[in-house]
Prior knowledge:
- By secondary structure, the protein is α/β, with parallel strands linked by helices.
- 45% of the residues lie in helices and 15% in strands.
- It contains 29 helices and 22 strands.
- β13 and β14 form a beta hairpin.
Amino acid sequence: MLSILRSLVQEVNSARDLQEALEIIVSRVQKAMGTEVCSVYLLDPASNRYILMATEGLYKDSVGQVSLAYSEGLVGLVGSREEPINLEDAPSHPRYRYFPETGEERFRSFLGVPIIHHRRVLGVLVVQQRESSRCFDEGEEAFLVTVSAQLAGVIAHSEATGAISGLSLTGEEARDVSFSGVPGAPGVAIGTGVVVYPAADLDVVPEKPTEDIDQELELFRSAVSAVREDIERVANRLASQLRPEEQALFDVYLRMLGDEALPGEVANRIREGVWAQGALKQVVQQYVRHFEMMDDLYLQERAVDIRDLGRRLLSHLQEGEQKHLEYPERTVLVSEELTPAMLGEVPKGQLVGLVSVKGSSNSHVAILARAMGVPTVMGLVDIPVNQLDSRELVVDGFEGQIFASPSADLRAFFQAICDEEDELVRGLEALRDKPCETTDGHRVSLLVNTGLMTDVVRSLSHGAEGIGLYRTEVPFMIKDRFPSEQEQREYYREQLEAFAPNPVTMRTLDIGGDKALTYFPIQEENPFLGWRGIRVTLDHPEIFLVQVRAMLKASEGLNNLQIMLPMISNISEVEESLHLIYRVYHEVREEGYDIHMPKVGVMVEIPAAVYQIRELAERVDFLSVGSNDLTQYLLAVDRNNPRVAQLYHSYHPAVLQALVRVAQDAHSVGKPVGICGELAGDPGGALLLMAMGYDSLSMNAASLPKVKSVIRSVGREWAIQLLEDVLLLDSPHVIKSCVDLALRNAGFGRYLRPARTSSAALAEQAVS
């Protein structure tokens, strides 16, 4: 479906005018879904009526002639409700409206989805089928919603305009050479670099004709079959480490190898007289150019998958096997562009770290690395990949740094971190079932941040008391379309059941910024200050409503669901969201589901929200600070940008002052307040937050035992005094040092992590 959608968007974008674009839409959607009818009705702003603008299957003469009032008929119902309507027998519905000039009396099954752009209903996309026995399934409904959401911006634009418009290593003796990138998966690893090069180089393939087309076709089919077997073998090797939805990332590769995808286009080029290797080069480079021109980081990363497949196919065509790689016992895999298939080539138990020059925290590799618990650094700049082979490497997935050929002192420093991590996990197991309570009786709830089911397993083993942040965008990111209501419901049910009766706080879809969907790209010059979080889902209520409905149905019989709204910047967003949630709640109850109204909270992650805590708290049940984004916005620093990431500091005085204010204002109106983010998982930060009065701290599962151990070993009065002391300081680095010193004096030096600083400073710290 993703390839169909991409092709559709390309065609629509190249259309000469709106009418041609609409005709392309109805034609391609009808074919893709195998329906008898596909039609587009657009809402005319002047008359406030829906007009049939294009159809495939109804009488063509009715185009431009048929119109409906704003709330008339099933089309009007879809538009006014702003969500899909799926009927097996449309004529029996009380809102059905018959137009003889269309010839639609022959069609009984009806599926309509709204076309919405920036909260404005532009029209309705409809598919119909003659047989009353056919009911469009959830996958088809989800696909049509995806098409509608994807094309809404194009249609809106065409309506308005009338046309669719470095560093390098310094020799064998070099030590402690560091490179900064972006954290891909947390953790620290020490191992030997193994550089993986492309299996073959498409760029050097010459252009030449073939005299034996049948032979070239047979060679290419054999290559496709061999590569498909390779991918399946890799997927099977990783099967024990990944859940089905995570392993499904390999299905992306297999779908690309389907006859209707890349192989089909290559075969067509061969039939035109181009030899197999040349045809493969032409098609792959065409795909890659298209994705790289999209100016969207996540979509650019799909070019990585295409290139990887192209190289593997070329390798088999050339009948030259990739040189046999020796994988050390502790392998750090390094590549210009790591791909999921590369991970599976490393023997089980030997992969300890990943380094990729290209890519981001949203790439398929990063998703798999987090699921597998492998420390990863992505997006390194100017790194001499070929010089890292066989070198000892330190991968710091917490800070997004790698160190090549570390000195004995630096290696010992990071090895101590690795050893302490292992020792702490073993030594703190006894705390799993004990409460997180200070020596003077102050209780704090320790929750976890999750996204994949593998997070849940670790969380339960570490004694988490619930989920403070479930990232619902993860199920959306591993799909090639919006997941259906039933698919979402299954994901959510797993999380709710695993932690019942403890609370599970689910954040509504938070895309935009550094989180993108392949099938719903958001292209902006400044995405962090643009269309993201609640702004997207309120502009697309059809997405929000389906997600909330799935959450509520998943909570039946458990009633431990809490819903959290991201990126809130004003009261109206909360009120509009609550209106939609209450609406869905009553609809689900009317459907017969025995559910309780969940608690609803807001995330405080925009500075504007810091100054509206009392007003926000009056409307919701709880508040939760997203400390990562709040820090980023307060300091105007993109924490994923290596050039300014050193300015990002959770201990900045402005950040601490804002956190104090949030806790005080929330409690002044009697509402609980929690926090999720890196600061909550830092032992020193957790102490300060506990002293501020935060009721719950949510963090990654690996941080939970250490935080619990520290809090259980101190009194709250001691922590309050530490907080008062650091609030008098004006430098984040001095504050961090002060907190670290207090922890060391209290006997918790083994819990401290290195601050983002120079390798020389780290080495000096290791010696001291």
